[in-house]
Amino acid sequence: MSSTRERRMILPPRWFVRVAWRVHRGLYRVTGGRVGLRRPKPKDYGTIHLTTTGRRSGRERGVILGYFEDGPNLVTMAMNGWADPEPAWWLNLQAHPDAKVVVPDGTRLVHARAARGDERSRLWSTWREIDTGLDDFAALRSSETAVVILEPRPDPVL
């Protein structure tokens, strides 16, 4: 018997993940945003509500995501419950990178981009401190999980 123990990450069934997402969004919507968002804490991520523009429909689409702060930027990961396809919100941001984020202390306009190179490595390491199983879950996907940076952008001049 080998002294190295292989860790196998088990994901909940897809239907369970989808129900959990719907319940979370429903609570957020029903309470007018009073429930469902939280600020990040040391060694713990927060939650935001991201509104993107649909790449095909042009309609607004909302999703609740985990994040942490990196200076003025918000950082999240483009995961789809660790399933293989890219999440729709990330595909939408690739087509229309300007978006809106609701954080516990208000609304921000942001511009999205994927972290690359050393920046990605640094931010991935920060995520790894928050979630010690990150690399094991990421290994379940056939492609690299994008680390998404939501940079502040100025309010449009009216």
SSE order and pairing:
Blueprint: H1 14-30, E1 46-53, E2 60-70, E3 73-78, H2 88-95, E4 98-103, E5 106-114, H3 117-130, H4 134-138, E6 146-152
Antiparallel strand pairs: 1-2, 1-4, 2-3, 3-6, 4-5, 5-6
Q: Quick gist of this model?
A:
The chain is of the alpha+beta class. The chain has helices at 14-30, 88-95, 117-130, 134-138; strands spanning 46-53, 60-70, 73-78, 98-103, 106-114, 146-152.
Task: Give an account of the 3D structure.
With 158 residues, the chain is α+β, with helices and mostly antiparallel strands. Helices cover 28% and strands 30% of the residues. The protein contains 4 helices and 6 strands. It has helices spanning 14-30, 88-95, 117-130, 134-138, and strands spanning 46-53, 60-70, 73-78, 98-103, 106-114, 146-152. The protein has a 6-stranded antiparallel barrel. Strand 4 (98-103) and strand 5 form a beta hairpin. The N and C termini lie far apart (69 Å). The model is unreliable at 1-6 (pLDDT under 50).
